[in-house]
Amino acid sequence: MSDNRPSPHPLPWLARPAARTWRCAPAPTEVRAFHAALPGYSPTRLAELPAIAAELGVGRVFVKDESRRLGLPAFKVLGASWAIHRVLAEHPESAGDVEAPGHLTLIAATDGNHGRAVAHMARLLGQHAHIFVPRGVHPRAVAAIAAEQAKVTEVAGPYDEAVRHATEAADAPHTVLIQDTGWPGYERIPGWIVEGYATLCAEIDEQLAAHAVISGPDLVAVPVGVGSLAQAVVTHYRSRPSGRAPALLSVEPANAACVLRSLALGEPVSVTTGHTLMAGLNCGTPSGLAWPHLHGGLDAAVAVTDADSIRAADRLAGLGVSSGPCGAATLAGTRAALTGTGREERRTALGLDANSVVVLLSTEGTDANPHATAAH
Ligand SMILES: Cc1ncc(COP(=O)(O)O)c(C=O)c1O
Which GO terms describe its molecular function (predicted)? Predict the structure, then answer.
């Protein structure tokens, strides 16, 4: 193992042994076929990285590389495309020429990737988009949203405030809020977004089988903002009636660890967020829709610093994987959990040994969030 130095600060870490036996209902199966029929669809690659496996002291490490997904540099379009498809099916009057009456304006708040995905789908499907962007999102990420012909409103406050602005704007006629976080009374559309992420997990199953990993992974690490992606991952791995369940590890920025804090308290709470290069994870409140799944099915939570995530992004770049700060957070978090002071206890909590198979979700490429290069 490369890094056994004592860490200067105690690791923000929480383990929850009961999660492995928690079970929930599966996601609908038709989502995969929907994505497969979209122009330009192909499964993103699952790269095996033996050098990282050696560093982490496990058998095999795979990285799910979402740096190119349906023409965009992050996984988010999986959720936006399925949710918008479901919404438009309920609004047949919106089909046709974009200037004709009846067209919808799709509204979303975003730390970058979700808003770009909504704007992209709106453009492809002949609808309008209005995207609310909080402070701290890189200007090039904002420009990429505008380049999808969306109206962009920059909000001076944090992500939660951008969500409030977007929700208010969606009171107007012919608008629909396409938000990737849910709360009481607003659950159907974020639920479809979560369903959309199931395609990523289904691809991993097939790709691991092709790598002769028949019984599935032992650990899956997920980057967490509001926890909708983690909800999809929990749903995937905790809805199997039998068989071995992997440990599921959430990774958040130390400055925005709302899920870690909520799990520690046993109830969803908001935290005050600061600045982080992991812009897509800079969320202060867990999705209310995701919370029962996060509380029930996550085995462990860890938080990492920007420096950790940038180091991990550099390491992945050296191995040929384009990974932005949010994507590389999973390598940083897994490294923090499996190495360094106290590692034996954490490895035991995750049920890992030298033969274990680890999957890291790298959810964005460097193009999605140019902070990483800007920091150098
Ligand atoms: C690249 C990237 N990874 C992970 C996430 C986290 O997803 P969630 O907010 O569903 O937890 C986001 C959210 O925007 C993201 O943009």
Answer: diaminopropionate ammonia-lyase activity
